Amino acid sequence: MRHSRDGAAAAVLDQDWDVVVVGGGNAALVSAMSAHDHGARVLVLERSDVTFRGGNSRHTRNIRCVHEAGTPYNTGAYTFDEMWKDLCGIGTGPSDEELADLTLRESISVPAWMTAHGAQFQPPLAGVLHLGRTNTFFLGGGKALVNHYYRTLRSLGIPVLYQAKVTEFEFDGDRCTALLVEHAGATHRLRTKAVVTASGGFEANIPWLAKYWGDAAYNYLIRGPEHNDGLVLGKLLEAGARSAGEEKGFHSVACDARSPKFDGGIATRLDCIPFGVVLNNRHERFYDEGEDIWPKRYAIWGRNIAYQPDQIAYAYWDSKVQGMFLPPMYGVFSGDSIGAVATQLGQDPEAAEATIAAYNAGVARDASGRFDPAGKDGVSTSGLAIDKTNWAQAIDTGPFYGIPMRPGITFTYMGVQVDREARVRREDGSRFANVFAAGEIMSGNILSSGYMAGFGMTIGTVWGRIAGREAAIHVRD
138 forms bridges with which residues in the sheet? Predict the structure, then answer.
């Protein structure tokens, strides 16, 4: 059967399906291919149109997996023990250690599986991202990966219904028997033997975020599509699904404050923080900018800024480090003094200069000689209320630079609880017989309050494979 954009929508909606996958990003596509590999007739429902298909996965670049030796795409080994230590070192550690352990162990076979299903990778990257050893980069980025997977779906004969919005689940006891789907101005009842929900979190639903964050949520930027409003998640919770993960938990980064409200993607992220200082709108430093290398600590900065007054902050740096990180998409503010930059940013120039002068007074005299952007260099300040523990050079060499930042929310962690088979658990302790989940909608089973680069794609791929396989086995048995 051809994709619905070629006129097959009516035929698709009229059939009974073994497995219906709700979502169109990485976890959904992996689920669909996995279910097909295990003998199921599969339909994919993507809420977006063809142009913007793929959800947050369009904005990704890499995946983090265990590998015991170097590969053509990694510079060295990244063992289970090291990855487990990294995971335990972010936020408050894994939400469910058993499921986190399973995720890491299953990740070992992920790159080969991805390659067999159309993915392409590129040689490891060098530079200050520090990811060449631990992470594997997609050739062409996430959009290319998504396109490869959609081509694989087409070759396997798996239909995709675009602009299909799931509005209700029909249940008979613990079993989902049908979905109500809005498509082309009409509502259709779609019959299925099993469902995989892989439709993302609720980060684009600002009123839902505001339930936990208050009015601050209205100052957040949403890095992914406006469709990620948690509609499917909400319907599962209404149907008695047990929740997993912190209500306030999300993956968020520092984004350019000038970015669009929705779907700015990876290009709006800022990487300047470790090499400068960050002030809030009261001209105060509020966190150690040099706590750790970028892949382990970049995702704390969205949350850091979310707790600041008016959810805004400002990064300052000088010409010694300009060019050592990815350039901001919308350019930077610059001037021959900190005060000149502060004025352009809307900050008080004297207050900003005073804070940075106090920071400079805490910098070691030989800091520039020991500065090393390639790794944690131990070049720290001393005697400050908040010391910077790495890359702490004085900001004293013009021209000077600055940029405004807001929290950029990638995805929320609170979702549905699953078991080892990716089957959704119910509030009463039982499980739905035929409802499974993969990706961001169940990431709270693994993640608590921290994040490490590439791990969202790991969760989506590992649990997509599990959910698709188990849904197909359920139908077969």
Answer: 121
